[in-house]
């Protein structure tokens, strides 16, 4: 069984994964109010993915004899200036999540907690994909600008939820 320190760190990170889901739902709401349903769909899919990540932590904590202790989640921002800002905030957030996963991995290695280390390896790979996805999306949105290009991108991004 992981140490109490490790279990506490995993519980804390589970909370952050739940927050990520809230964060991306807030972004989806912004896009819905801006009449950009494709981007809203993209962020709803992102939110579902983050909630799945949280549930992986939930299951792991209980499986290894710990306890998935749900904690209060802070409210995410609810207003944004532009699609570019939203995607930049998303990329910045994913970089913070990556740093947190690496910190958990370092702690697991230090404690010789091999089971937790193996569990976290999936998240290390996932964060590479998350950062790449947001980097690509941000680049497209920056190129799309504020005019017709953003409408074309909105349609393209909406395909994520359909597939």
Protein model, in words:
- This protein has five helices and no strands.
- It is mainly alpha-helical and 163 residues long.
- The protein has one domain: Ferritin.
- Helix 1 packs antiparallel against helix 3, helix 2 runs parallel beside helix 5 and helix 3 packs antiparallel against helix 4.
What's the quick description here?
With 163 residues, this protein is mostly helical. Helices cover 80% and strands 0% of the residues.
Defining traits:
163 residues; 80% helix; 5 helices; Ferritin; mainly alpha; elongated
Chart the SSEs and their pairings.
Layout (H helix, E strand, L loop, with lengths): L3 H30 L3 H27 L19 H28 L3 H31 L3 H15 L1
Helix pairs in contact: 1-2, 1-3, 2-5, 3-4, 4-5
E-strand count: 0
Portion of residues within helices: over 70%
- State the order of secondary-structure elements, H for helix, E for strand: HHHHH
Structural class: mainly alpha
Q: CATH homologous superfamily?
A: Ferritin, core subunit, four-helix bundle
The Rg value, from CA coordinates, equals 17 Å
Low-confidence stretches: none
CATH class (first level) name: Mainly Alpha
Number of helical segments?
5
The CATH topology is: Ferritin
CATH architecture: Up-down Bundle
Question: What percent of residues are in strands?
Answer: under 5%
Query: Main beta sheet: strand number and arrangement?
Result: none
For the termini, the CA-CA separation is: 39 Å
Number of domains: 1
């Amino acid at each position: 069984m992981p140490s109490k320190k490790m279990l506490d760190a995993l519980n804390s990170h589970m909370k952050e994964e739940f927050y990520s889901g809230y964060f991306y739902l807030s972004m989806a709401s912004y896009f819905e109010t801006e009449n950009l349903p494709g981007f809203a769909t993209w962020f709803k899919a992102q939110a579902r993915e983050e909630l799945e990540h949280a549930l992986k932590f939930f299951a792991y904590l209980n499986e290894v004899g710990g306890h998935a202790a749900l904690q209060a989640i802070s409210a995410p921002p609810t207003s944004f200036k532009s699609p570019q800002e939203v995607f930049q905030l998303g990329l910045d957030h994913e970089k913070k999540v990556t740093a947190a996963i690496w910190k958990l991995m370092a702690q697991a290695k230090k404690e010789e907690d091999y089971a937790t280390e193996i569990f976290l390896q999936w998240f290390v790979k996932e964060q590479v994909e998350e950062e790449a996805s947001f980097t690509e999306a941000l680049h497209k949105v920056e190129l799309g600008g504020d005019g017709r290009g953003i409408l074309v991108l909105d349609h393209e991004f909406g395909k994520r939820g359909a597939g």
